[in-house]
């Protein structure tokens, strides 16, 4: 457009020159300079418009995202609602009345853990009976890229980058199609586009001005994956804070999801380090690994030579043995090339194939609930036995007084005092609590059974 306008202007100047004598070159240069100035201003305004449009689009994305989660419809599962009501009302009333169990705080935490698991299952039915495999590790260990390497399609992928990007824990399961869901704080589900999900990094969340995890605590991705139909991977935030975003709670979030997993894949980036960081070892030591299988991923192995990799695996073995951390194997893995370069113990793919079996989630939850109720039952029964023992001492005391020739019935004052003491050690209230406990146990277990029936 610029050349055509100038050429047209030059032609008009030539036409004028046929009638007037003047310096055409000066006039042409002047016009050209003025045109260039106007064009620079125009381009500047266009660039400013593009930048402002990008800002507007970012604001619109933030508004749409927040609105989606705030307006999300509540999940409608009557069986789970009944379970919550039993816990909030019946159980808490019972817990406030009884005083036998010293470890009551622990019992309540266990119940809250069960409630959260059931809430996740009812919100994300795709994870039901899956073997939960939590992918943990430090900041920039390559956890998300590792999981991406199992995806068949490029349509969806977990956000990756140099900075800390995994801000919200994400469940990943195999499915025939690809879609992303967000779980709202009220229990509703929100469908998200792949483009919007990519933006959910620490930097994006920080730009919102509040912690998005308060209204969107967890995400879910279903996408085609090779051969892992019974696995549910969890992409967890790096446990160690970076310089960006809301990282103060990341260690708590990571610990929570690793605690509830059946299997742990612990990733360590070996691109810049040839050993296991001390902070990783400290974190692993603080995780309750009982009944969990752990596998070590020496990630980003494509950035090392084969000789370096073999030396690094030797170092890993020595350190893990020194810290008495039991593991199934160590894999030097390249997420970029989707290949295992070397391994110790069991290979990664062999291990995942072995883990690719359904889990009896219902059996596990029933077991955890019974542990809680058994704690109360044992504590109350122990108090009953203690009070009965005191009662037997009162009976023995009465016999001793009678043998000594003292008739208690002749002394109303002594008899009244003994009766007062007996009333302090009556077991009727505790017996009633045991009955309430069993009724509540049956009601809560029945509500859990109804939850799983609703899922099937």
Descriptive overview:
- With 456 residues, this protein is of the alpha/beta class.
- It has three domains: 2-70; 78-107 and 363-455; 130-359, Rossmann fold, CATH 3.40.50.
- Helix content is 55%, strand content 13%.
- The chain has 14 helices and ten strands.
- The protein has helices at residues 2-17, 24-70, 78-97, 104-123, 143-148, 194-198, 202-208, 250-260, 278-286, 306-322, 348-355, 361-403, 412-424, 428-455, and strands at 131-137, 170-174, 179-183, 189-192, 218-223, 231-235, 263-269, 293-299, 329-334, 339-345.
- The protein has a ten-stranded mixed β-sheet with strand order 4-3-5-2-6-1-7-8-9-10, with helices on both faces.
- A hairpin with a 4-residue loop joins β9 (329-334) and β10.
- α1 (2-17) runs antiparallel to α2 (24-70).
- The two termini are 66 Å apart.
- The model has no long low-confidence stretch (mean pLDDT 82).
Please render the helix and strand layout as text:
Blueprint: H1 2-17, H2 24-70, H3 78-97, H4 104-123, E1 131-137, H5 143-148, E2 170-174, E3 179-183, E4 189-192, H6 194-198, H7 202-208, E5 218-223, E6 231-235, H8 250-260, E7 263-269, H9 278-286, E8 293-299, H10 306-322, E9 329-334, E10 339-345, H11 348-355, H12 361-403, H13 412-424, H14 428-455
Parallel strand pairs: 1-6, 1-7, 2-5, 7-8, 8-9
Antiparallel strand pairs: 2-6, 3-4, 3-5, 9-10
Helix pairs in contact: 1-2, 3-4, 3-14, 4-12, 12-14
Outline of the structure:
It is built from 14 helices and ten strands. With 456 residues, it is an alpha/beta fold.
